[in-house]
Write a structure and sequence with these properties.
homotetramer, 9-stranded mixed sheet, 27% helix
Chain lengths: 308, 308, 308, 308
């Protein structure tokens, strides 16, 4: 944890947008950034980056408290009023807010008793959820910006990075270089490892959940220097799993979410988008992925859109 | 129902996009429309149109099967790994897919045994949900387009339309005229009645749920002629409640969703957006409101974004 | 709270059955008591004391976290295997463990940081439930004993005690006297106020939930002296509501559950049983009301049986 | 299915207790039977036959719609009123009604479009549950009777019957003979296969769920002739799995539940009770296992009690 604490001093955004701020790096999405985002719509093609939200989702039940969505019908073509007329169907869902394609709120993780922006965890967290840094703050309004996709698998010339591979700053630079795309402050960075294929094609949920290739801890300063507004990926944790140092759990989460106030978007399906970008060479797009405004929630499912 | 059946022949979109189509009027959102939508981002200001998704939502429990979201914590700052390090919080939500700001899928309502595009209800609907016209079809990709807001309350010079007032085509025309904005094929139409104030300011959920001012049945041809891609409002049913003819339940739902394949977005919070548009005179914007891709679902909560 | 702390010294059962005990006064149900219970079956008539567990239950949603059960079908006559053969239906329930006829576990309430038998609340309670004094402990095995019904309404010659009436030890004695029944150590005491009629007949859930006639604080020593194994009633809290001293919340809960280790059974429907007992003069019976063995649970729904 | 239909004629109880009956063989529990049940309490020892109801339950998620209970805290030692005083904890459960130790209602299975007592399935079953033969009918009042345990594993001299072994009438007779116990009309029959050890000791849920030793179809007339009131076992389906005839799914369910109106109690933990009975030679007891009165429900979890 000493390495985390030391890096935290370097990358922290606490106080940068005021002591009451609960939106973190989303503050970087200025009107200018939104206009730049809109300007990336050059062809009028849209992509959904969300996995199907159903019983066939990526969860196995092996993560405490996480399971695939349970979907119940409360009306199935039920008649209402006179016969022959109006019939309706209604439904209910029970699901972990982080069971599939989703955002982490800035209250999702913490250490040393403090959440993002110095909020005492003990005061914020309870059976009612989080009183500070909840997901609804990220959704008011948000999350939309210019998105930039980095295809780390194609950059290495492989269909997918091997389970457990660590992504280094040099990998990110190489992908930017190869794709000839610029990453600007306020952009949302999406990176593709190809690891989602392990689940989507191979049906191997355990490997998908627990052995994702992903960012190593030294990508944290890289992200901070570029002032990205959010980071998204097709793995389950943005960062590499298992963690680089077996004694140090989820350091990228801790530094990104708690110290930088950087929203993490996980389990994004980037396959079709990446193939399209590879084809036409346009790697930036309008990105809109508004989290549900769950009061006091620590995460949210989302169906992200990329529009080129 | 004879009036419904007769109007249906006039406005039906069945077969228009193929016999297998499950996206309805979202097909009208062409690449050109998306580019036009992006061009509406002139100032870089974003608005969230979603209500808070929590125990304080608009539901009273008086609608069968609908209640406000139930939010449970499955981890509250739980330590993981070595002491002093990583702590995390996780949560679960149980909610009707149509309890707050939400989309109706094209399977939500039907009559005469057929869903949108002639799908037999009996074959599509079961305890598992809907096998056709499910909400995930509207989310792949979607829903994004140019949005146009009509402020019907300001057009009439009132803070909000009275409960139960019927909106006529002339009201829509008058608002377009007043606002000097053009509604084009493929646009999403959002109209504000101000009725949401009854709940948000007055706390009167029953009146909000059951007595919304809204579209009368003769707005259906108006919508069809203009080829809007979706229609959204701040009331609970798009159409007026109670229904114009007490014997004919939800005719606008039946004709819009089942015959036209027109997605309905309900309980949108348009207050801040409308005030801003009134101020600067820009009534169109980039609209992004992707429904969750709930497998076999008939609705979805959403946090819609409008970006000017 | 000083009165509570002082009374606690007098009635406490901490340590009485060992420092590890989690079953409290259920320890009083010895083999002799169970044989005495069986001997009360003289006529072979059984009564269910449970309210219907469904959407029409007593909850209004005005108690934080409590609502009526939500019941979902996951299969509705679904065929399995060859046509014409096996069809099945399955269902799911989501419910507060204390939404209707139910048991409080010995972890349900506490004060001064300690649960029953001196267990530190902070160590026992978490998002996972309670690590000590959970409801499954009361169910292994249990709860069964000789039951004795006291009809406090009939003793006062009224159909039901008025909302908010305080029951005193003299009322309990008078009912015992009138009914000529003996209350013995290890028995389960059930008392009827008639207050349930306010909900069942009058549909007034708010008054039912919040203004129940019930035990005053001076009944606590009375219960302790008689060594009852559990106490059940047709009101929602055993004790009177609003509480006698508006500054002192739920003192009977605190002293009964936390200090005595006395399980509380609430919202029991005693109407038919009481009428039968009045008719034949037999006020004791075999009582079996086993709580569900919910791991780490703090309460349980139950369908109690009385067999005369 | 012809064999089923033919046997049905022989064992059917339709109309036996009136055309409106929804309690089936529970009608056999007369006052005399209840008195006989009470007389079986000779020693005053109680046993809980319920499995723990929690995340460690027997479900794997491989059965559609069935999962282990999800338990959520809605208050965790929350203070109410003045500081230092009352604190409380509350919780919620979401669970399939048949995920662990449980009762099947008489609406759980059917064939040829009819439920028990000739009720048309189409009229009874909907998204709201079952309008007839629901589990609350079995709980009003009930289920209590004299229980008789048959230890089929000990009768064969094995710790547990092999997965998939078929139990024949001769096995039941041999166990009765060995145990020198009489089975009388109105008794509840419980039989132990020992198969539960596969889950409890071996942790092998798949084998436990899908390969239980159990009754063959020719036990159905045997049960009918003896007029048992209910049948319970430590396997998951009473009957053998896989089914004897791979083309004929769950014939014992169909004949028992739908034709005889015989409640099935599944996944009972009979280990400790059986060991005790073997030790002292008393194989009968008072049996109390009241299902929750879930309105329109098709099953119920239960914590059954046996008192000797």
């Amino acid at each position: 944890m000493d390495r985390v604490r030391s890096l935290a001093q370097r990358v922290s955004n606490w106080g940068r947008w005021g002591d009451e701020d609960e939106r973190g790096t989303l503050n970087l999405v200025t009107p200018e950034v939104l206009k730049r985002a809109a300007a990336a719509v050059r062809q009028g093609r849209a992509f959904s980056l969300g996995l199907a939200l159903g019983a066939d989702g990526p969860q196995t039940g092996s993560v405490v408290g996480r399971f695939n969505p349970q979907h119940y019908m409360t009306a199935i073509g039920a008649p209402f009023g006179a016969p022959g007329g109006f019939h309706y169907s209604d439904d209910v869902i029970c699901m972990p807010l982080q069971c599939g394609t989703q955002w982490d709120s800035l209250a999702h993780v913490h250490y040393d008793g403090l959440l993002y922006n110095g909020v005492p965890a003990e005061r914020a967290l309870s059976a009612s959820g989080t009183a500070r840094n909840a997901i609804d703050k990220l959704g008011s309004p948000g999350i939309a910006s210019r998105g930039v996709l980095l295809d780390l698998a194609r950059a290495r010339g492989v269909p997918r990075l091997a389970p457990g591979s660590v992504v280094r700053p040099a990998d990110l630079d190489a992908a930017l270089e190869r794709q000839r795309v610029e990453l600007l402050p306020g952009d949302v960075l999406l990176f593709r490892t190809g690891h989602l294929q392990v689940f989507l094609e191979g049906g191997d949920r355990e490997t998908y959940l627990w052995q994702g290739p992903g960012l190593g801890i030294d990508c944290i300063p890289w992200l901070r220097e570029r002032d990205v507004a959010a980071v998204c990926a097709d793995n389950t944790a943005i960062e590499v799993m298992p963690c680089e140092d077996p004694e140090l759990f989820y350091p990228v989460h801790l530094l990104g979410i708690r110290d930088m106030g950087l929203p993490f978007g996980e389990m994004f399906d980037l396959e079709a988008l990446a193939a399209d970008c590879e084809r036409d060479g346009q790697w930036d797009f309008f990105f809109a992925a508004p989290p549900l405004k769950v009061t006091a929630g620590v995460g949210s499912p989302v169906n992200p859109l990329a529009i080129k």
